[in-house]
Amino acid sequence: MNLSLILDVLPLLADSMVLTAKLTIASIILGAFIALPLSLMRASLTAFLSFPVLAYTFVFRGTPLLIQLFLVYYGASQMDWIRSSAAWFILREPFWCALIAFSLNHAAYTTEILRGGIRAVPFGDVEAAKALGMSYALRTRRVVLPAAIRLALPAYANEVVLMLKASSLASTITLMELTGTARKIVAQTFSPYEVFISAAVIYLGITLVISYAFAHLERHLAKHQQRNAQTGMFWFAEMIATLRPRLRGSVSR
């Protein structure tokens, strides 16, 4: 293994890392905006609202992302009405096609993750909000969604990491992101081992940053639970200290 080649390739791949980060972040943000209302519909007990979302998530979770990407990039060009419309100015660019495919796929997984978080919100919290006279929109915004997001955060962190790795598929539609640039350098240097190790190191670095950020966010959102646990332990210790003299007196008798 040529260590000097790995060090020489890293700066070249770092430039393409910007495009990978841009595509991943944009897909995550757009997918989250799509998933938020869909998760509320998916968690609804009304079949009229939940069934169309179920069909959407089933299709996008049940088919490979690569096929979805090809359908958007190659399939759109086969339709005359798309080529003659204003949408063709977007769909003819590989970046926008990748963004659309990745966002729709990410939204499908995020919808199911948030739906699980919404269903896991304690029933008593929702009933307490109803007892206070909160409307559906108010208790969803103040009670349900904050608790659901906190519960779904670990699973969502894994989905973000998977989205980062899935961005490498954009190289199949001529988008020169991190993996695409690595393949180009391999064709020039005939050194796939060193080049792909360099790309893997960069992916690992980005994954480490994402994992650390979500771990910090989880600790921040769980502060109130730690305070409640500390308060409960303090109350329990005080109760034991109060009862101890009485227990000793009863034993001496």
Automatic annotation (TrEMBL):
Protein name stated in the entry: ABC transporter permease
Similarity-based family: Belongs to the binding-protein-dependent transport system permease family. HisMQ subfamily.
SUPFAM superfamilies in the record: MetI-like
Pfam families found in the cross-reference section: BPD_transp_1 (PF00528)
Record keywords, A-Z: Cell inner membrane, Cell membrane, Membrane, Transmembrane, Transmembrane helix, Transport
Record domain ABC transmembrane type-1: where: 17-214
Transmembrane segments: 20-41, 53-74, 86-109, 195-217
Gene Ontology CC terms, in alphabetical order: ATP-binding cassette (ABC) transporter complex
InterPro entries associated with the record: AA_ABC_transptr_permease_3TM (IPR010065), ArtM/GltK/GlnP/TcyL/YhdX-like (IPR043429), MetI-like (IPR000515), MetI-like_sf (IPR035906)
Presence of the UniProt keyword Transmembrane in the record: yes
Compartment(s): Cell inner membrane; Cell membrane
